[in-house]
Design a protein that fits this description.
96 residues; elongated
Length: 96
């Protein structure tokens, strides 16, 4: 008797398990964003962001962790924009 391919049941796929697959990449992006700030002289802000990212990542890998890591990336981007004189990647208008 020929049988089809076996299906291996690996348990339920949950939102948390899918989320946990993406958190290492998100954490790396958060650290890279903080490092970029440090390279450009914003060491104090970079240290605060690295601390927030590390604290979130060392706790439960859940939605709260994801939100914190995304917030770190957003805050680093905002600090970079202020440093560069841009808003959302567009040069800020100068008035004279």
């Amino acid at each position: 008797m020929l049988r089809g391919p076996r299906t291996v049941h690996r348990g339920p796929v949950t939102t948390d398990s899918l989320l946990a697959q993406h958190l290492p990449e998100l954490y790396r992006r958060a650290l890279d964003a903080a490092d970029d700030l440090a390279r450009h002289g914003q060491r104090a802000e970079a240290a605060r962001l690295r601390h927030a990212a590390g604290r979130a990542y060392s706790r439960a890998w859940d939605e709260s962790c994801r939100r914190t890591l995304e917030d770190v990336i957003r805050r680093a981007g905002a600090a970079s924009a202020v440093r560069d004189g841009t808003v959302d990647g567009v040069a800020a208008a100068t008035t004279r």
